[in-house]
Amino acid sequence: SAVISQKPSRDICQRGTSLTIQCQVDSQVTMMFWYRQQPGQSLTLIATANQGSEATYESGFVIDKFPISRPNLTFSTLTVSNLSPEDSSIYLCSVVAGASNQPQHFGDGTRLSIL
Amino acid sequence: RKEVEQDPGPFNVPEGATVAFNCTYSNSASQSFFWYRQDCRKEPKLLMSVYSSGNEDGRFTAQLNRASQYISLLIRDSKLSDSATYLCVVNEGYSTLTFGKGTMLLVSP
Asked: Nearest by CB to A104, which of B41, B95, B100?
């Protein structure tokens, strides 16, 4: 399966600042996604990163708070803006390399803590 | 609302035991099904896909019953390294995944 590199692996940020997380894949993939996993919870989809166009956001997530870029088929970024303690979470990118019914594979995750 | 339900556990079993996890899903139109394993503070990793005919991978056996909207995972001869949270994951179509909250397994010596 594709090798997915996510950076940074962890960060501690001040309230009101922003953090950009990068997801790099070693091969072209059809779909890329961004998830959030809050402590003790399962994964929640933030958005689907669309190559060359605006991301598709799930209910409860908006572009102003979570701007996403996907300039090509191997790279995407998620920015978490105007950080607050409620944003403390693990953020994960995932990819699908083939058809949409194929499993997703996840990056290592970014552990974000807000002071 | 699409839901995937799992027993949260934890399941505490001795090494060598056989343990079974169950999962139910609400969307009858769901297209594909998976079990993922997540170790503490790590990303989910695909354990196996689940097919209608049932499938086996070493000590792991997965079953799907579409009529009952039920998925199972059987682990035989449990190892200490099997301790993890097991996530039941349903693909609703177009790669839209719904995750169960996970079942925690603790295998003890």
From this structure: B95
